[in-house]
Design a protein that fits this description.
Length: 171
Amino acid sequence: MTSNAFKLSNILINGTSNVDPVMIDSHVAGTFLDVVSSPGDLPVSGNALGDQRWATSTNKLFFWNGTAWINTTVSNYLPSVPSGVENSYNLALDGTATVITATSTDPDGTAISWTYSTTGLTTQAAIGQSTNVFTITPSTVPANNGIFYLTISATSNTNTVAKTTKITLAH
């Protein structure tokens, strides 16, 4: 048996709730999902429970619940840019760690995963991470002075947003 299932994230226009109608027409139409021009064209009779229709004028997906067509909003919005991250930090010379707690939300309500990357980090500090908490422990050796950049990224589904901060260690 061949599956007619499709992955909605494959037809979303990145970062929006809009669906690419070309993807619907070329990859889905004629299987289990029928395309109509507008919600006004949804059939009022002859429907079976679970029938689906795509309205191209509104980029909306509708399901027949046995009595009426139900509009299902398809979305894959970007999470918010991480907050709680300053534009720059000066690290403590005595080796006291700087702790950054980043926060982000996803309008779709899906979970956020966290990562980080650096540019220019050599021996100035060590970075640890526990979910959205980033701990920067500076070197106490004056020869390790320098500047590096820390980018903290929030990912939800396939969407990633990031904030970069400048970190300075100057004995």
